């Protein structure tokens, strides 16, 4: 038999569990980085919150009689769910990767969608693991607008900012250097990167690669090489127009973060009609191929200019 005090306590416990659930889902970043078993156990919390008071209410209603099989069933299920949650949380605490040192990471892109395409999932993974992530986009991408009506009110800056929010970047700066003419502003871009590295002291920079056929991308790569000479690690990412001479030697596992990369890319709505490389299956396939090359489920691939462990 359950006393009225116990019933009140169980209702209080259920309300607390629902409150915890609400906060966990509110801080989706936490949930994003959880391995699948831990995500499953978090998903079980509402079930427990329903089962426990249901069991108590049943017991309370049949207090004068012997306990029914339904009551035993509910109680047993409640215990199994609780044990499942505890085992998974122990697993999470035991095996979750812990960053040894907080890193400051800076991602550079010529156009508003370059960072997402090249290293979007990696940036989110680093953020979830407790590092600090920043981004600079050097042009507002007006050259990539095919709809003449959009030229008057270029939406690409807003799209980049929304993409940055999906990747949970600590900061994103979108600059106004002339799109498709960044090679004429390489000196200025170099100064921007130099100033930024002086202020942030990044441990790791992501930038375009030297093989890229787009002159804006190459301009950002060359400016980075000059400005980031004191940065310990510089990794070059690939874009859809990167030629096959790109030979990655660094792979970062991103299977947990791929759906968020696709979500960030979807923020660039103005590009989806005219750019087949933004398509979801293409992004998934490239990540699978790169993952396969490094015996991982899915990965983003980089050419390391400098890699400091
Ligand atoms: Zn680009």
From TrEMBL:
Species source reads Herminiimonas aquatilis
Q: Which residues cross the membrane?
A: 6-29, 41-58, 70-93
Q: Which PANTHER family match?
A: N-ACETYL-ALPHA-D-GLUCOSAMINYL L-MALATE DEACETYLASE 1, N-ACETYLGLUCOSAMINYL-PHOSPHATIDYLINOSITOL DE-N-ACETYLASE-RELATED
The EC category is hydrolase
Q: Which UniProt keywords apply?
A: Hydrolase, Membrane, Transmembrane, Transmembrane helix
What name does this protein carry?
Answer: PIG-L deacetylase family protein
What is a single molecular function from GO for this protein?
hydrolase activity
- Return the EC number: 3.5.1.-
């Amino acid at each position: 038999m359950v006393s009225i005090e116990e019933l009140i306590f169980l209702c209080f416990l259920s309300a607390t569990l629902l409150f915890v659930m609400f906060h966990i889902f509110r801080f989706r970043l936490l949930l994003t980085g959880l391995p699948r078993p831990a995500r499953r156990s978090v998903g079980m919390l509402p079930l427990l919150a329903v089962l426990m008071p249901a069991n108590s209410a049943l017991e309370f209603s049949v207090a004068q009689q012997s306990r029914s099989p339904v009551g035993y069933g509910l109680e047993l299920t409640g215990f199994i769910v609780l044990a499942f949650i505890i085992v998974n949380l122990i697993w999470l605490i035991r095996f979750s990767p812990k960053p040894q040192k907080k890193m400051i990471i800076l991602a550079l892109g010529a156009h508003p969608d370059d960072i997402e395409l090249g290293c979007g999932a990696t940036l989110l993974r680093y953020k979830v693991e407790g590092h600090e992530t920043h981004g600079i986009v050097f042009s507002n991408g007006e050259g990539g607008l095919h709809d003449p009506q959009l030229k008057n009110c270029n939406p690409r800056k807003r799209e980049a900012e929304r993409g940055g929010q999906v990747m949970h970047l600590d900061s994103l700066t979108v600059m106004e250097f002339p799109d498709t003419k960044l090679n004429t502003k390489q000196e200025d871009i170099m100064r921007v990167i130099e100033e930024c590295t002086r202020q942030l002291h990044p441990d790791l920079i992501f930038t375009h690669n030297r093989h890229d056929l787009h002159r804006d991308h190459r301009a950002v790569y060359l400016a980075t090489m000059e400005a980031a000479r004191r940065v310990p690690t510089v990794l070059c990412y690939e874009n859809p127009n990167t030629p096959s001479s790109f030979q990655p030697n660094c792979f970062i596992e991103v299977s947990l973060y791929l759906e968020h990369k696709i979500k960030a890319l979807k923020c660039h709505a103005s590009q989806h009609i005219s750019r087949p490389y933004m398509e979801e299956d293409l992004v998934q396939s490239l990540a699978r191929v790169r993952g396969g090359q490094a015996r991982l489920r899915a990965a983003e691939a980089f050419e390391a200019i400098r890699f400091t462990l």
